[in-house]
């Protein structure tokens, strides 16, 4: 696909400075850009390198000060990163997915498959499942009995959806993810541990995206739920009966213990851990590698272990960094005190 700078600017509702007739055939980073590509500079730090790159067009902010070089064009927009993201979608290579059911797929009795569905090789679908219209299921996926999958959902290879799981519309589930596996629940008894039956399910809302190798456990009773628009990175563990609200961001290697409630628009940064039976309020950010051991109200920014307000944690870290110096001063003072005591004797 090729677009002129003028066509791109019109699509972005943006201003053009320079040659409007230049043809753009791809979107690229500053480092990888070649003639015919468009790139972006999100702030002044990258303007110089973007200007010197081989890119034919550069997206910058309305306030950016950049010289238009010969044979290039500048596109001004309030949010260069957002504009570039839209162009990545425009110039993305087209993936051709054949519509239909591969002859090696196994589909159980009573399962209903919608129109224009793609089911790849060696897919196994249990009984009484419901597959919505335009769903794409890549090869080697397992879908259990009575699973429901909403329209236009994409399920990548080797995903496992256990029995009775419900997946919303326009969901993306990446390779290796397991949804609806048994929750980790035991009662200690005299001779070991008695397994608690896990009879609940998992419900995934519309437009959720789930990364690779994520595990979302089924509830003991009731539901483990992920709200509409939430995005989950790779290698995340979500335990039984967890409730995650809408539009949350859960970044790689996060672990959420059972029966915890995550309200809307919460961000859990990489490797954060959340203990069980807690609540994290809406719009709260939990910094990377934090350990949440008690409930947190809305609109907070916390970090550290145990997680506390970020400013407080920074002060503690600053004090800790001074401990070697303070220890040295204490030893010096102890030596002076001992000298004074000797003199008084």
Which features characterize this protein?
flat; 345 residues; ten-stranded parallel β-sheet; twelve-stranded mixed β-sheet; alpha/beta; 5 helices
Task: Give the biggest beta sheet.
Answer: 12 strands, mixed
Return the average pLDDT rounded to an integer: 94
Q: Could you list the spans in which at least 5 consecutive residues all have pLDDT below 50?
A: none
- The side-by-side strand order for the widest beta sheet comes to 8-11-14-17-20-25-28-31-34-37-39-40
**Gap between N and C termini:** 93 Å
What is the helical fraction, as a range of percent? 10-25%
Structure class: alpha/beta
Q: What is the number of strand segments?
A: 40
How much β-strand is present in the residues? 25-35%
* Shape, per Cα inertia axes: flat
In quaternary terms, these chains amount to: single chain
Radius of gyration: 27 Å
**SS summary, helix count:** 5
Question: How are the SSEs ordered, and which strands pair?
Answer:
Elements (H helix, E strand, L loop, with lengths): L2 E2 H8 L2 E4 L4 E2 L1 E2 L9 E4 L6 H6 L4 E4 L12 E4 L3 H11 L9 E2 L4 E2 L4 E2 L4 E2 L4 E2 L4 E2 L4 E2 L4 E2 L4 E2 L4 E2 L4 E2 L4 E2 L4 E2 L4 E4 L4 E4 L2 E4 L5 E4 L4 E2 L4 E3 L5 E4 L4 E2 L4 E2 L4 E2 L4 E2 L4 E2 L4 E2 L4 E2 L4 E2 L4 E2 L4 E2 L4 E2 L8 E3 L4 E2 H12 L1 H22 L1
Parallel strand pairs: 4-5, 5-6, 6-7, 8-11, 9-12, 10-13, 11-14, 12-15, 13-16, 14-17, 15-18, 16-19, 17-20, 18-21, 19-24, 20-25, 21-26, 24-27, 25-28, 26-29, 27-30, 28-31, 29-32, 30-33, 31-34, 32-35, 33-36, 34-37, 35-38, 37-39
Antiparallel strand pairs: 1-3, 2-7, 22-23, 39-40
